[in-house]
Design a protein that fits this description.
Layout (H helix, E strand, L loop, with lengths): L1 H17 L20 E9 L5 E8 L4 H12 L13 E10 L4 E11 L9 H21 L6 H5 L7
């Protein structure tokens, strides 16, 4: 019996390799239509002692809403640190510049003012993860039904007995 199981286990990968389906034609992935004008967004962000962006204090957008959304999401997830891994609490300006000729985005960062009362504040990305975890836990509890109130509390009267 063990020999039969062992032989079957050895034959499955060989069978799968010889009967694998290959696409008949290569599948073309559509390339997104990139803008043909230069784009620029600018954000002033607060950075905590760990180097994590706490919040966006102000920003300048461009006419391209997708670029605005992508750069805003990127800046909220940023860490701004020195090459040695240390960080400086402060206000920073983060610029995003899209060049239509090279089809690349250049990000530049500059310290505007050192210090701030947000040194121990939670980073924006950490806060988003904590919120998502809390919401997932609430959804799990709602699906399990453990947080449902008693039936008497819903109906307002005791349920009838047979």
């Amino acid at each position: 019996m063990a020999l039969a199981i062992l032989m079957t286990a050895a034959a499955i990968p060989a069978f799968a390799a010889t009967h694998a389906t290959k696409p008949k034609h290569p599948v073309a992935v559509p390339t997104p239509a990139l803008p043909n004008v230069p784009l620029h967004t600018e954000f002033v962000v607060e950075v905590n002692a760990r180097g994590q962006v706490v919040r966006v204090k102000s920003g300048k957008s461009c006419k391209n809403l997708t670029f605005n959304a992508q750069t805003y999401g990127n800046v909220l997830q940023m860490w701004i640190r020195h090459p040695d891994g240390s960080a400086e609490v402060g206000l920073y300006r983060v610029n995003y510049d899209y060049n239509p000729k090279t089809k690349k985005v250049r990000r530049s960062i500059a310290l505007l003012k050192a210090g701030g009362n947000w040194a121990n504040a939670k980073g924006a990305a950490t806060d988003m993860i904590d919120t998502a975890d809390r919401e997932a836990e609430q959804a799990r509890k709602a699906r399990s039904g453990k947080n449902l109130p008693p039936l008497n509390a819903i109906l307002g009267t005791p349920s009838p007995h047979p």
